[in-house]
Design goal:
By secondary structure, this protein is an all-alpha fold. The protein is about 95% helix and about 0% strand.
């Protein structure tokens, strides 16, 4: 089974190789059949194409170098001490803001307690005054 598969693949490979050779020979013949002016134009176009291909490869190499530089720069930024300090300070600011909120909440609670205390004092004074008035009225009646 494996041998048959290998034989089939090998036969397919040879068939493709033969077709490629035929195409190559056909192209060679067409090039040979060109008149000198067309052949010269073809050669010029082929040279231009090679230059463009070279330029494309140079640009790809440059893009690869730029990408490598970007990655290196990003890695430097990740390790940058100033960036770490900024993150530390931001964390500290967030902690201080949370503490401020807690203190404001506590201040509100203390203010509420003070208000209740003052209201109770006022009520006590009113009660004492009322009792004193009642006692005075009682004493006046006797």
């Amino acid at each position: 089974m494996l041998f048959l598969e290998k034989s089939r693949k090998l036969e397919e490979y040879h068939k493709i190789e033969s077709e490629m050779n035929k195409i190559y020979q056909s192209l060679e013949q067409k090039l040979n059949d060109l008149d000198p002016e067309q052949r010269s134009e073809y050669d010029i176009l082929r040279e231009e194409n090679q230059k463009y291909m070279s330029n494309v490869q140079d640009l790809r190499d440059e893009v690869s170098r730029i990408n490598a530089d970007i990655i290196e720069g990003e890695n430097l930024l990740k390790n940058n001490q100033q960036k770490k300090e900024v993150h530390r300070l931001k964390d500290q600011i967030n902690q201080l803001l949370r503490r401020k909120d807690e203190l404001e909440l506590q201040t509100n609670e203390v203010n509420n307690i003070n208000l209740i205390y003052h209201i109770n004092n006022i009520n006590l004074i009113i009660l004492i005054n009322h009792i004193n008035n009642v006692n005075l009225i009682s004493l006046d009646s006797v």
